[in-house]
Amino acid sequence: MKIKTLSPELLHNIDAYWRAANYLSVGQIYLYDNPLLKRPLTLADVKHMLLGHWGTTPGQNFIYVHLNRVIKKYNLDMIYVSGPGHGGPAVVGNTYLEGTYSEIYPNISQNEAGLQKLFLQFSFPGGIPSHASPECPGSIHEGGELGYSLSHSFGAVFDNPNLVVACVVGDGEAETGPLATAWHSNKFLDPATDGAVLPILHLNGYKISNPTVLARITREELEQLLRGYGWTPYFVEGHEPELMHEAMAATLETVVEQIKKIQEDARVHGNLARPRWPMIVLNSPKGWTGPKIVDGLQVEGTFRAHQVPLSDPATHPDHLKPLEDWLKSYRPEELFDEQGRLRPELAELAPKGERRMGANPHANGGILLRDLRMPDFRDYAVDVKSPGVGGIGDTHVLGRFLRDVAKLNSEHRNFRVFGPDETLSNGLEALFEATRRQWDATTMPNDEFLAPAGSVMEMLSEHQCEGWLEGYLLTGRHGLFNCYEAFIHIVDSMFNQHAKWLKVTSHLPWRRKIASLNYLLASHVWRQDHNGFTHQDPGFIDHVVNKKAEVVRVYLPPDANCLLSVMDHCLRSRHYVNVVIAGKHPAPQWLTMEAAVKHCTEGIGIWQWASNDEDVAAPDLVMACCGDVPTLETLAAVSIMREHLPALRIRVVNVIDLMKLQPQTEHPHGLSDRDFDSLFTKDKPVIFAFHGYPWLIHRLTYRRTNHDNMHVRGYKEEGTITTAFDMTVLNDLDRFHLVMDTIDRLPQTGDKGIYLKQQLKDKLIEHKQYIDKYGEDLPEIRNWKWNREETQKG
Ligand SMILES: Cc1ncc(C[n+]2csc(CCOP(=O)(O)OP(=O)(O)O)c2C)c(N)n1
Ligand SMILES: [Mg+2]
Prior knowledge:
The chain is α/β, with parallel strands linked by helices. The chain has 25 helices and 22 strands.
């Protein structure tokens, strides 16, 4: 006879613990009062608004109690990621049962009064959301927007060799693109230096109102699919609690032992072959143990169990008794003592201290966060003897700095660079002098820079990169995501969710701040010479600035020294999303390191060396610029004007920190109106050359005094495969258009202006003819240099 994993007593207690969690879950969805059902249930005991998701919850409760058992048995360092995070009642209920919840929220105490509050706060105004939200201890993944659980889990275990993440994947969630690709994460996991992810596919058969694809393919197909992704699936299936407890307990032991064996093979015996990691498929009814039939329709085991199975008894009086029966079916009097405390023999089942999944410090990563060891970014400075000297491409300079960040932190293994196959093409090749791209699949002799362990993570899925990085940051490490500017939009929605997470957690005192999520968007809109229109989209910034000002920062450094200073700042910062847009092509350099540091610290400023309004009361116009290419065109325009219209007094303002433009009341970086007016004047024309869509500048400045005089040029969706300069011409951002714009707005330029304008129009025709014939820009454009005598002042 097969020896059972669970003794009858343990099985009984595990089942009781599961019932307790299920009871708490139903209580959270329904109960306003009478938490222990000490008296018969009445309408007054039921909440008026019934919200929450029952369907996924009993399955997750089942998983949680069994994980508790193996955590204790094997002393596992484990956290729980709830893919279908709408199973909030499960994670809240379980962290309450294990004691973590009351430690963090003393008012939700472990007694009858605490139970009542626990129930009441759920999905209640001023209470907690119905997901594994930031308020829930032990959560690094809210699971509101489905699809990212597995990527987050892998991000959490990179460089965390002792951590195991149990990741519950919804079978509906598994239909999303990000989740579908996340199964491949196992080719990027080093069993020696990383931890392990245990995916538990929650095959409850349904989504909100549909069956799931994975539940309606044959068992053979499902198994082949998961095996094809490189996993060994173990099936736990059924609905009889006793049989299911035994099956789950036995299977969990098998998979934990396999994980340990894989790790030992790699760590002790140096086995480098890619392992086939185990995973579990839990096939149990949706809404398990809930009402079987409601109003004549089957509920348990169908999509109808997804949310609130029994609707409001106030409007359906015949639902009150079934609700009471349902709650009583868990026999609360056997689970909680007279005071409402979980009985000691059950409480005993939960792990202790930080082994409790709600109390594991990895799920409150800021606790574990240590500062990066940083090289001095000034050591990587470009020598700018005079403004306009040639540069090799700003991101190439940054690459050397990042290389040394990677080097200095390799011992602590707490810094990684993520990107979809673009670390090289974004100009960060220097990184590979210090580290490798982590790759645990087969390698071939011609491959470059691959190794089983490394601090660069590349897979051609922006979702995957974003999810990995988020998981890495949420567990207390540092990182950077480098991406083509146009394609970062793929993760717009993931960015949203992360920004929301940061906003909420920043107001939870027990959650420590984590490292910022840093985007480096190289390969930007203006320099897609061979890729063309599909690769031209600077709209990510428009999207980002919708989020809370306390969370987002946007930087457009005009040259390499500024980029170094900005990135140094971003890597040291906490709890932000920093978006940095920089070029990778050879481009003029403007500021010495000393000037760059000042400029970056201020975020916006007058470039005196390019201006000639210093000794007059007010300039005739302000030429503002933001972004590397707009800065180049602005300075070229200024040099034309200073030569041809020498009487004009021009002020050049460069913006590096976009948020400076917003009013101070809207963003902590925002300039006061007074400072803004002193830079941009109250009444002079401002010709503003901007990296992105022009309307963003209007959006940010519409309340400023001089807004009516701001004329913004930027990308207006004109693009194709063409020369770098022609891209600016197509969008009226080029130097000639900028000068013409000025002349139109300054009648005092008189006939001189009119003649100059004619010359510039001719120039634009000449430009078109030239590029059509030679396929490159005019020599005077290619070779243009800022050659005014002025040198910059500090
Ligand atoms: C990306 C995304 N699309 C749609 C939804 C709306 N939604 C919430 S729950 C759900 C069904 C989820 O089904 P499954 O993953 O199987 O979870 P479970 O059955 O465990 O509830 C959907 C479509 C969502 N939350 N996220
Ligand atoms: Mg499902």
